[in-house]
């Protein structure tokens, strides 16, 4: 193992630690560009040394500057991005790999849980991509690890299969009572599957929150951009409300003075709500349409509306904000 020269740094005021093993929590680490997500998984698994902080699994320190429990003694399962199945072994043999003799009942149980009954005698090349992924997950779960690590497990799947496999994976993990850490670029995967999301930037966790809190009440502008599309409007806060170019909006947390208000495109309601706006252009996106709008002082911003709504370039109507929104104080 080599020493990690770009350390994984803990958030201010605390240590970064995975949730205790065998809990019913799935943690996701979405996006930014300078993320070091692979380093994070390797450090938890025991393949990287850390230069600061510590990692605990089930309350036990497994990694710090003075402690490093060998990888094979950490009780950690790892699902690789390419699944890494043995092509010369059957599905049942892949799942049983690493289990002691006499584990046929465990293999049968996992085949049933993964809805792979009757496929135990097949080889990986005879399975679909989704079935191969399930085998990889089941193999990692077979020895009852304390925690499961997943590196972009849906990246090789098409959109329809991705959605189905995301739901199946969560179902399997919850049935096993398994704590999981999943790293992903896809914020939809993170928001849909996680109990808690840790947003990383440049090797630092900048926010850890539930998906709902990260979406509705992010603690910073930086983390707000990782939950969904974000756009910020200048405003003046007066306690529970703020004055903005889109009118008076309710705030999710009291604030006073100059601020920037987060208003996601889907939070904007159109027609009959107060502030005149003009359609600059419209883009059809299936179930929804994306309107680029203009109001005095803001030449372009976006609202997402149902695709059946009639709106074309140069149309005008009134808009407003439907929900209580977060605001961030501006300097000075």
Could you walk me through the main structural features you see in this protein, from its secondary elements to its overall organization?
The protein has 332 residues and is an alpha/beta fold. The protein is built from eight helices and 17 strands. The protein has helices spanning 37-45, 91-96, 104-113, 129-141, 159-176, 187-193, 211-216, 221-227; strands spanning 2-3, 26-30, 48-49, 55-57, 60-63, 76-79, 147-151, 179-184, 196-201, 204-209, 232-244, 247-262, 268-285, 288-295, 298-306, 316-321, 327-329. It has a six-stranded mixed β-sheet with strand order 6-7-8-2-9-10, sandwiched between helices. Strand 13 (268-285) and strand 14 form a beta hairpin. Helix 4 (129-141) packs parallel to helix 5 (159-176).
The gist of it:
This protein has eight helices and 17 strands. The chain is an alpha/beta fold. Helix 4 runs parallel beside helix 5 (159-176).
Keywords, please?
332 residues; six-stranded mixed sheet; disordered N terminus
Task: Indicate the topology.
Layout: E1 2-3, E2 26-30, H1 37-45, E3 48-49, E4 55-57, E5 60-63, E6 76-79, H2 91-96, H3 104-113, H4 129-141, E7 147-151, H5 159-176, E8 179-184, H6 187-193, E9 196-201, E10 204-209, H7 211-216, H8 221-227, E11 232-244, E12 247-262, E13 268-285, E14 288-295, E15 298-306, E16 316-321, E17 327-329
Parallel strand pairs: 1-3, 2-8, 2-9, 6-7, 7-8
Antiparallel strand pairs: 4-5, 9-10, 11-12, 12-17, 13-14, 13-16, 14-15
Helix pairs in contact: 4-5
